[in-house]
């Protein structure tokens, strides 16, 4: 499938998902090509002003910004590919993230704000139209702006394309990596939210939690739209469950579910909002502003748009929300396994005379929960000892924040897999069926980890279920 890109307004989260996750190709509309050509023509007229200083065009880069170029020297300067930007190495980003960065790069081009040669924009778009994208390292990304992210992705283009004034800058400047990383995380965590709601609801049904804790009355009493949405979702999932409930309230970890899930939902919604805005944001430096009545020749302004200060805090919040749910999953497991609190048979399997011990799953969950907590640490700007070289004295560590939330997300998938197994066992020993909305989930859990009726090794089934959950999160992508 080929999608048309007309303006930066087209760069929605859904558009991003189709291109980055599902592999859709891309082409510019005639209108976009016309705008880019007009911007390029206006820019080339503008830079003929001998008194105008434009960073990286009529001046050098970085610590060489005091140098001045004109005429043939300016063109020679422009034709040098940005080789220094290809230094990072280490673990590569998933293919979907590389595609997302390339797509996000085009926001600066499509409406003419990069003022780059239109054919160069087509070359970038063509990276998305078949074949594997160039690799970019997740590690070592400590530079100001995102030139280290872009370098490896575009260097082959820069080597073969006849670069002209500002083209090299347009290839590497901006914040497309931050846009891609927050968009990627928002899509994945939205799906983890759905998985969390279903597994937690299955657990609530397994312990026969009184439904009053999820009553619609709390939507008005709490006055929070995200908690209200979680209340409604829990009621939908639990509809048609057992009429016989516990004679008194469930443990705290069950009663606070709507509020904890509501907070997870809030962080996902905020991440989606930031992603949508970031994908459309013009972040080029210097940025070209088209001619208007007050500025008939147009303008070029140096700026700090390439520093996305919203992305990494939002990623941190996603990691924290996932870590909190890991803790809730462990609490549910320990309560379900202990008959003093579950009011169910202790989860010591007695079929065929076999007595198993699922309590060890709580131990494993603690390990994953603590791993998620370590991942969910706040990302700060580098301290005074980590400023960078020359003018490049502040680096956004968005890549670290993305890797941390990805790790916390994997821990959550594992924690939910173990809780799902324990809930499944509770249904088995009490000979109950799941509510209709949760029947397929219970079937999926038992497909990987059937109820215990005889001794067996636990790890393969747990790993298979966690992998099933993970595959569901990234369904539709060519690489996880």
Query: What's the architecture of the domain at 2-182 and 274-301, going by CATH?
Result: Orthogonal Bundle
- The CATH topology of the domain at 2-182 and 274-301 corresponds to Fumarase C, Chain B, domain 1
CATH C-level label of the domain at 2-182 and 274-301: Mainly Alpha
**CA-based shape:** elongated
State the assembly state of the protein chains.
Answer: single chain
Number of contiguous helices: 19
> Can you identify the CATH superfamily of the domain at 2-182 and 274-301?
Fumarase/aspartase (N-terminal domain)
Helicity, in percent?
40-55%
Q: Characterize the largest beta sheet: strand count, sense, and whether it forms a barrel.
A: 2 strands, parallel
List the strand order in the largest sheet: 1-2
Low-confidence stretches: none
Determine the strand fraction and express it as a percent band: under 5%
What structural class do you assign from the helix and strand content? mainly alpha
- Helix-strand string: EHEHHHHHHHHHHHHEEHHHHHH
**Nearest-integer average pLDDT:** 93
The N- to C-terminal Cα distance equals 21 Å
Gyration radius from CA atoms, angstroms:
27 Å
Q: How many E strands?
A: 4
How would you describe this structure to a colleague?
The protein is mainly α and 480 residues long. It has a domain at 2-182 and 274-301: Fumarase C, Chain B, domain 1, CATH 1.10.275. Helices cover 54% and strands 3% of the residues. It has helices spanning 13-21, 30-46, 71-78, 95-105, 107-110, 118-126, 147-160, 167-172, 176-206, 217-222, 225-238, 252-255, 257-280, 311-337, 339-342, 360-375, 398-429, 439-448, 459-473; strands at 2-5, 25-28, 287-289, 299-301. The strands form 2 sheets. The chain has a two-stranded parallel ribbon with strand order 1-2. Strands 3-4 form a two-stranded antiparallel sheet. Helix 14 packs antiparallel against helix 16 (360-375). The protein starts with a strand and ends in a 7-residue tail after the last helix. 48% of the residues are buried.
């Amino acid at each position: 499938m080929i999608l048309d890109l007309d303006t930066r307004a087209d760069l929605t989260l859904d558009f991003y998902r189709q291109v980055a996750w599902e592999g859709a190709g891309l082409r510019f509309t005639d209108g976009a090509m016309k705008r880019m050509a007009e911007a390029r023509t206006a820019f080339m007229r503008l830079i003929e002003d001998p008194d105008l200083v434009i960073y990286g065009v009529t001046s050098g880069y970085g610590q060489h910004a005091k140098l001045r170029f004109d005429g043939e020297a300016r063109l020679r300067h422009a034709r040098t590919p940005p080789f220094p930007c290809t230094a990072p190495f280490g673990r590569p980003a998933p293919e979907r993230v590389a595609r997302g960065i390339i797509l996000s790069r085009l926001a600066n081009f499509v409406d003419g704000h990069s003022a780059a040669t239109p054919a160069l924009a087509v070359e970038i778009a063509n990276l998305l139209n078949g074949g594997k994208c160039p690799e970019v390292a997740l590690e070592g990304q400590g530079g100001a702006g995102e030139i280290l992210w872009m370098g490896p992705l575009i260097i082959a283009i820069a080597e073969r394309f006849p670069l002209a004034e500002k083209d090299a800058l347009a290839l590497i400047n901006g914040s497309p990596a931050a846009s891609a990383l927050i968009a990627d995380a928002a899509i994945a965590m939205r799906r983890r939210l759905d998985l969390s709601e279903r597994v937690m609801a299955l657990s609530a049904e397994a312990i026969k939690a009184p439904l009053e804790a999820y009553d619609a009355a709390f939507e008005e009493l709490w006055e929070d739209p995200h908690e209200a949405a979680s209340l409604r979702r829990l009621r939908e999932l639990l509809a048609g469950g057992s009429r016989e409930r516990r004679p008194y309230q469930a443990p705290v970890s069950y009663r606070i579910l709507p509020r904890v899930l509501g907070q997870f939902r809030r962080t996902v919604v905020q991440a989606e909002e930031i992603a949508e805005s970031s994908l459309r944001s013009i972040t080029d430096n210097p940025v070209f502003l088209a001619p208007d009545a007050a500025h008939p020749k147009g303008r070029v302004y140096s700026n700090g748009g390439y520093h996305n200060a919203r992305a990494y805090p939002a990623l941190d919040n996603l990691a924290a929300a996932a870590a909190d749910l890991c803790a809730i999953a462990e609490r549910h497991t320990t309560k379900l396994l202990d008959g003093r609190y579950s009011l169910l048979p202790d989860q010591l399997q007695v079929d065929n005379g076999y007595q198993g011990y699922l309590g060890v799953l709580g131990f494993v969950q603690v390990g994953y929960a603590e791993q998620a907590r370590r991942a969910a640490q706040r990302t700060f700007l580098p301290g005074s000892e980590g400023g960078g070289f020359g003018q490049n004295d502040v680096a956004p560590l968005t890549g670290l924040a993305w890797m941390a939330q990805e790790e916390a997300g994997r821990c959550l998938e594992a924690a939910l897999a173990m809780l799902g197994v324990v809930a499944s066992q509770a249904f088995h020993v009490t000979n109950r069926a799941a509510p209709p909305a949760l029947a397929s989930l219970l079937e999926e859990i038992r497909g990987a980890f059937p109820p215990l009726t005889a001794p067996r090794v636990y790890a393969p089934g747990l790993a298979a279920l966690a992998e099933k959950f993970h595959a569901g999160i990234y369904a539709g992508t060519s690489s996880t």
